[in-house]
């Protein structure tokens, strides 16, 4: 009997697209599984640990059609699976999501009760003396079996503030502009899209009219607007990646740590003059020397971010040292407005850092060199005279001046 391995493991916890489709079409999926068995195929489905109810529903429907089926835990040893053969075996993995499961060998290891240890090339390596089985994604299997009617690709669109939407189907040949339209974001505001792992590329605003290449797979697409900082975007991406790096290769593990650390420093106002040069040197070497595609992909994404958004990222640590989009909290500063300050002195009393200059009936002034951006002064001022500013700073006097308004 032929075996077909189907992978429903999500890459992103917030975008479990294949699993979402399976839950939506569980009855039709069971029917497709029964038909596959009738055609001489043993199905092995890989689902995340938290999908036990879906696994139970699916196997109950398959069993009701008279086909052998059972659910096994990802930690079950190989020989147990062999000892109790079934036509449809659903393996519940120990984890609920992870980039590593896009690597065929890593996912295949789970079927044997092993840890998901990746290998460099999907489908081109052996393990236990056997060729790693080629896995199909859950979405591809459902489509091939006729469960999904359309020919598009399902993705979860992520809003500029990071909220994941329910998956939508993008038609074949869909463009970045189609994603923006589906997101409801004003196209004039869009700075770029980020096609999530395993594609992991940015699509800049100038290329939104071009068809998206989603052939490598992509469950989540994030929309970035002019209010989003691309250094902060890379900081979030790299920090998320750090949790995905499995630690089996030095270049991947240490490289992803370096990338996350450098972007973390940049958005925290600790960037160094040669930060992007360091990343520019690191990434090509890292991309070549990782064991699997997970961290190699981060290296390529970082290189692309430097090419597209290098000026914006460098602005954080060169020249006036600012976050041009105004998103990074470390670059937000507090200021006292001449038009509102009544000179009551409450902010001065609240400031533990001695960063406020002023006296009664004088507009108070914040010494930016001493200010630690704690925000106490804003809380203390009942006149709304203390404001927090991003890229655009209000004009304030260099030293206290007599108040124009009075309490
Ligand atoms: S900023 Fe507010 S709290 Fe401080 S002196 Fe002016 S009015 Fe008073
Ligand atoms: S934000 Fe904090 S440190 Fe800065 S002036 Fe206000 S109270 Fe002082």
Structure description:
35% of the residues lie in helices and 17% in strands. It is α/β, with parallel strands linked by helices and 407 residues long. The chain has 4 domains: 2-144, NADH-ubiquinone oxidoreductase 51kDa subunit (Rossmann fold), CATH 3.40.50; 153-225, Roll (Ubiquitin-like (UB roll)); 231-314, de novo design (two linked rop proteins) (Up-down Bundle); 332-402, 2-Layer Sandwich (Alpha-Beta Plaits), CATH 3.30.70. The strands form 6 sheets. Strands 3-4-2-1-7 form a 5-stranded parallel beta sheet, sandwiched between helices. The protein is elongated and about 90 Å long. The relative contact order is 0.09. The structure holds iron/sulfur cluster (SF4) (2 copies).
Summary of the model, kept short:
The protein is an alpha/beta fold. It contains 13 helices and 18 strands.
For the sheet with most strands, the description reads: 5 strands, parallel
**Helix content range of the residues, please?**
25-40%
Give unreliable regions as ranges.
Answer: none
Mean pLDDT: 92
Distance, first to last CA: 86 Å
Strand content: 15-25%
CATH superfamily of the largest domain: NADH-ubiquinone oxidoreductase 51kDa subunit
**Beta-strand segment tally:** 18
- Total number of helices: 13
Gyration radius, to the nearest Å? 27 Å
Q: Specify the overall morphology.
A: elongated
In CATH, the topology of the largest domain is named: Rossmann fold
* CATH architecture term of the largest domain: 3-Layer(aba) Sandwich
- Label the structural class: alpha/beta
| Distinct ligand kinds | iron/sulfur cluster
Q: What count of domains describes the coordinates? A: 4
Report the top-level CATH class of the largest domain.
Alpha Beta
Main sheet: which strands, in order across? 3-4-2-1-7
């Amino acid at each position: 009997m032929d075996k077909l391995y189907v992978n429903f493991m999500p890459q992103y916890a917030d975008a479990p697209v294949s699993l979402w489709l399976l839950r939506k079409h569980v009855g039709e999926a069971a029917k497709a599984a029964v038909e596959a068995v009738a055609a001489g195929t043993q199905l092995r489905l890989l689902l995340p640990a938290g999908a036990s109810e879906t696994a139970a529903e699916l196997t109950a429907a398959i069993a009701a059609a008279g086909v052998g089926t059972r659910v096994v835990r990802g930690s079950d040893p190989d020989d147990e699976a062999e000892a109790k053969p079934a036509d449809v075996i659903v393996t519940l993995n120990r984890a609920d999501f992870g980039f590593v499961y896009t690597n065929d060998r890593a996912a295949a290891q789970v079927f044997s009760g092993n840890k998901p240890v990746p290998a460099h090339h999907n489908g081109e390596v052996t393990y236990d003396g056997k060729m790693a089985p080629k896995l199909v994604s859950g979405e591809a299997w459902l489509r091939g079996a006729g469960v999904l009617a359309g020919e598009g690709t399902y993705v979860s669109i992520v809003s500029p503030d990071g909220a994941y939407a329910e998956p939508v189907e993008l038609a074949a040949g869909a463009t970045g502009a189609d994603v923006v339209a589906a997101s409801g974001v004003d196209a004039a505001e869009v700075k770029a899209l980020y096609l999530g792992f395993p594609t992991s590329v940015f699509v800049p605003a100038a290329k939104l009219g071009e068809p998206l290449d989603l052939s490598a797979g992509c469950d989540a697409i994030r929309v970035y607007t002019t209010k989003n900082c691309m250094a902060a975007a890379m900081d979030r991406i790299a920090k998320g990646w750090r949790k995905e790096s499995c630690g089996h290769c030095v270049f991947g593990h240490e490289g992803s740590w370096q990338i996350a650390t450098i972007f973390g420093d940049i958005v925290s106002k600790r960037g160094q003059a040669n930060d992007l040069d360091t990343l520019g040197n690191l990434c090509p070497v890292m991309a070549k020397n990782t064991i699997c595609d997970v961290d190699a992909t981060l290296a390529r994404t970082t290189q692309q971010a430097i090419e597209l958004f290098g000026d914006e990222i460098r602005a954080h640590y060169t020249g006036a040292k600012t976050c041009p989009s105004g998103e990074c909290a470390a670059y937000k500063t507090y200021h006292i407005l001449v038009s509102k300050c009544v000179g009551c002195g409450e902010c001065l009393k609240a400031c533990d850092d001695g960063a406020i200059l002023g006296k009664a009936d004088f507009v108070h002034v914040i010494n930016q060199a001493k200010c630690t951006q704690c925000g106490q002064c804003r809380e203390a001022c009942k006149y709304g005279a203390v404001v927090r500013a991003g890229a655009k700073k209000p004009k304030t006097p260099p030293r206290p001046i007599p108040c124009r308004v009075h309490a």
